[in-house]
Amino acid sequence: MTTAHTRPVGIDIQESDDNRALVDAIALDNPEMTVRHLPGLMKLSAPGRIEINRETIEDRLGREWETGEFQLAIVTYTGNFAEWDDDQIIVAWDH
Fold first, then answer.
1. For residues 40 and 14, what is the distance between their CA atoms, to the nearest angstrom?
2. Distances 80 to 8, 37, 75, 77, 86 between C-alpha atoms, Å
3. Where are the alpha helices (DSSP H) in 30-88?
4. Coil, strand, or helix at residue 18?
5. Which helix (H) or strand (E) holds 36?
6. What is the pLDDT of residue 94?
7. Distances (CA, A) of 91 to 9, 47, 62, 66
8. Is the Cβ–Cβ distance between 50 and 39 less than 8 Å?
9. Which pLDDT belongs to residue 78?
10. Strand order in the sheet with 8-14
11. How remote is the C-alpha of 4 from its chain's centroid?
C-alpha cells in the first residue's frame, strides 16, 4: 500500500541552462529524487515530497533567485504545492 509519505510526487521542468542548474540544486536537497532527461524536458520524481530551497538554488546559480521564478520552469507536476513562500517550495501530497 502506498501512503502519502511514499506516494511519488513529480515535477516536469523545461530544459535550459538555468533550469539544469536549478535541477542540480533541487537534487542536492532531495537525495532520493530521480531525474529523467527527455528531449527538452527533465522529469523529477521522489517518494513523498520534493523540497526546493531558495538558498541552495542561489548557491548553484550564483545569483539571487526568487521562488516565483519557478513558475517559468514548470511544465507540469504531480502532487500538491504544500508550501510556497519566499524561501522554500514543497511538493507533497496532502492526504
1. 6
2. 11, 23, 14, 8, 17
3. 54-61, 70-73
4. helix
5. strand 34-38
6. 79
7. 7, 11, 24, 17
8. no
9. 97
10. 34-38, 41-47, 8-14, 74-78
11. 18
Q: For cell 548553484, name the residue.
A: 60
pTM: 0.90
In DSSP terms, 43 is beta-bridged to 12, 36
Q: What single letter denotes the amino acid at residue 73?
A: A
Domain definitions of the chain by residue range: 8-92
pLDDT at 3: 57
Query: Which residue(s) pair with 35 in the sheet?
Result: 44
What's the confidence (pLDDT) of residue 6?
A: 84
* Coil/strand/helix, residue 30: coil
The C-alpha cell of 6 is what?
511514499
Q: What share of the chain is helix, strand, coil (3-state, %, to 5)?
A: 30, 40, 30
Helix or strand (DSSP H, E) at 91:
strand 88-92
| Architecture of domain 8-92 in this structure | Alpha-Beta Complex (3.90)
